[in-house]
């Protein structure tokens, strides 16, 4: 099934294995800096745009109700650059800062993962099952400067946020708004 979806999947797999083996045998230099978003995602977007790679979705999400989000490599690259700008500019984060994301697996979860990679931020993922005590511990231990959640989970998180001395910004994913929270969709 994946072969039909991706077309020449075996060729791509062989290229990846070949590249890995050449690095392993010290035939290729490891880059001093590697960023998945710019070195892989943006490269695949460029190859698609130039017609050298067939267009396939970079991201395809479907929920239980049948809602669907599908992004090309170019769209994911563009959205992740915008999200990285939101994190860097609106949230005031700098390379190496830590970000806690307490979100269900919505498209923005993956978008923020790529945006954090792009901006050099350390993403600390958390599930919606974390308790207030869990979140408080993670905030203090990580010295996170930003927390991201959705409008449903935000009220539960707010009880522990005043105790976090390092937190600079709070970002909400969704349609709703809350006092003291920035809204990702509005900022994008």
Automatic annotation (TrEMBL):
User: Does Phosphoprotein show up as a keyword for this record?
Assistant: no
Sorted UniProt keywords: ATP-binding, Fatty acid metabolism, Ligase, Lipid metabolism, Nucleotide-binding
Give the Pfam families listed for this entry.
Answer: AMP-binding
- What is the protein name for this chain? medium-chain acyl-CoA ligase
| Gene Ontology BP, a term | fatty acid biosynthetic process
Family, as annotated: Belongs to the ATP-dependent AMP-binding enzyme family.
Q: Which reaction does it catalyse?
A: a medium-chain fatty acid + ATP + CoA = a medium-chain fatty acyl-CoA + AMP + diphosphate
Q: Which InterPro entries match?
A: AMP-dep_synth/lig_dom, ANL_N_sf, Mitochondrial_ACSM
> Which source organism?
Thryothorus ludovicianus (Carolina wren)
Ranges for domain AMP-dependent synthetase/ligase? 52-175
Task: List its EC numbers.
Answer: 6.2.1.2
Please give the GO cellular component terms listed in this UniProt entry.
mitochondrial matrix
What is the top EC class of this enzyme, as a single word?
A: ligase
Q: Which gene encodes it?
A: Acsm3_3
The keyword Lipid metabolism is annotated on this UniProt entry: yes
A GO MF term: medium-chain fatty acid-CoA ligase activity
């Amino acid at each position: 099934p994946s072969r039909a979806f991706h077309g020449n999947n075996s060729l791509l797999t062989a290229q990846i294995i070949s590249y890995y083996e050449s690095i392993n045998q010290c035939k290729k230099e490891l880059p001093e800096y590697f960023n998945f978003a710019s070195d892989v995602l943006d490269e695949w977007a460029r190859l698609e745009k130039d017609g050298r790679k067939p267009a396939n979705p970079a991201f395809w999400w479907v929920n239980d109700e049948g809602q669907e989000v599908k992004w090309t490599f170019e769209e994911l690259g563009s959205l992740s650059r915008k999200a990285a700008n939101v994190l860097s500019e609106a949230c005031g984060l700098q390379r190496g800062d830590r970000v806690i994301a307490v979100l269900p697996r919505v498209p923005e979860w993956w978008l923020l993962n790529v945006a954090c990679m792009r901006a050099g931020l350390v993403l600390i993922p958390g599930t919606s099952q974390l308790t207030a005590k869990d979140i408080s511990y993670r905030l203090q231990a990580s010295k996170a400067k930003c927390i991201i959640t959705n409008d449903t989970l935000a009220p539960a998180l707010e009880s522990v946020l005043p105790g976090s001395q390092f937190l600079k910004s709070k970002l909400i994913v969704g349609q709703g708004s809350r006092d003291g929270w920035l809204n990702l969709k509005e900022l994008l």
